[in-house]
Amino acid sequence: MKDNVRVRFAPSPTGFLHIGGLRTALYNYLFARHHNGRFVLRIEDTDQSRYVKEAEEDIIKSLEWSGIEIDEGSENPGKFGPYRQSERKEMYKKFAEELIENGHAYYAFDTTEELDQMRERLQKSGNPSPKYDTITRQSMINSLTLPSEEVRKRLDAGNEYVVRLKVPRRETIRFEDLIRGHVSFESKGLDDQVLLKSDGMPTYHLANVVDDHLMEISHVIRGEEWLSSTPKHVLLYQAFGWELPKMAHLPLIMSPSGGKLSKRKAESEGIPINTKDYIEQHYEPEALVNFLAYLGWSPGDDSEIHSLNDLCRLFTLDRVSKGGAVFNHKKLLWYNEHYLREISDRKLAERIKKIADNEAVKNADNEFLEKAIGLLKERVSKIDEIITMGSFFFGDPEEYDEKAVKKWKDDSSELVLAYKEKIAALDEDQFEAATLKSLLEEVINAEGVGFGKLMMPLRIATTGQGFGPDLFASMELMGKESVLRRIDTAVKKLG
Ligand code: GLU
Questions:
Q1: Structure confidence by residue, pLDDT tens digits, 168-184
Q2: Is 331 exposed, middle or buried (0-12, 13-18, 19+ CB in 10 A)?
Q3: Hey, whose CA ends up nearest to atom 3 of ligand 1?
Q4: Which pLDDT value is given to residue 2?
Q5: What atom of ligand 1 comes closest to residue 12's alpha carbon?
Q6: Which domain holds residue 62?
Q7: In this predicted structure, what is the pLDDT of residue 3?
Q8: E-strand stretches of 398-487
Q9: Residue 258 counted as domain residue
Q10: CATH of the domain at 304
Q11: Are residues 22 and 43 in the same domain?
Q12: 463-473 pLDDT tens trace
């Protein structure tokens, strides 16, 4: 085995970085850090038809937001660059030709029509999934069936061709997977994979293997969806006479309703699918990282909270599970709550001023804002909810929550006004939570009603909502004048 751990995250820039992609990047990063190795970012952009220009930037931004540091990539190249496959194009051709020379690959000149005809012919004769394989290749137009002068002639004339891998006839392809153990595939199920396309670009398989070798990647850690590509890669390593890196295929991420967490499924279940969505929806990066680390791995005890640094120390591949990992959104919110509560009120205030579009919040007095945050942060899952739940701190309620208003009863106005009379008599500096509470008790005792009879309408009147932070502390913060005014407005509006 190679001495130094070198791993890579090798996304194709075809869209925004998917949450599953972020987990793959994270596991690679944790593994690299655990072993004092290097984490490489390689952009696999050989499929021009699926290329999305903004994708690379999104990938880099997402990793940065998550705290995943790239040791080598196109922005900070090491000695194994370039790190974008489109910039390595010439290299792959040379390797494809090397395989042709040593008999492990061949030129194929078949046109699209000829390939379609072959498939149709085979389907008719009872083969539901026809392949370009050991048998079929013998009746197709390639450098194995054409005389060598004819092959030369076609190449010299600039005829279009692809290079195909010559998959052996009957062979069991075996490899050890660090997560799944012993894996084997029969070569007869494989087709003669195209390695180099007619536009001269390599396919994923060729480019991936060549680069993993040239970049001295020691461990390939990737999603389970790539497991079925691995036998082709094993054949390529053998054909080149190169050592196979250690392989580790991560379990699928499953939707709570079963099946793979696809984009469509995630959408229908209200789960954000791209890392960008989590950034825009104001999740805490530490929470997402902690949550994703546990999505398919655990340290083997019942601990749950770990910083990225801790995770680097704890992470090992032998504790990654084989079975699919179910995405539990509630658990993510639980992590988010944890990390949110660890942030000081002052820091939260700074951030809230930046993300709020409410002018009153943006311009709020810092001390006031921090006190409001102190009251709210235990009750929300995400930072943006502090703004929505606490909107009443920054302006009188403009409307009353529909459900809450149902609890405004015939006697509510009377009770609330009785309370108002008591608190109106307080001086500004007596207007504090404990006093406000004991005056409420006085009123309910005098009227012979339960706590909620007055508490609920009072909450509705002052906050517009049916639930929220501690009401007495909230009223203290709102101040006397504001509370009295809100009570009057509610009595007028709700009767
Ligand atoms: N380009 C592939 C992807 O988009 C890389 C798969 C691998 O890691 O080999 O995920």
A1: 999 999 999 999 999 99
A2: middle
A3: 11
A4: 52
A5: 4
A6: 6-76+209-252
A7: 65
A8: none
A9: no
A10: 1.10.1160.10
A11: yes
A12: 999 999 999 99
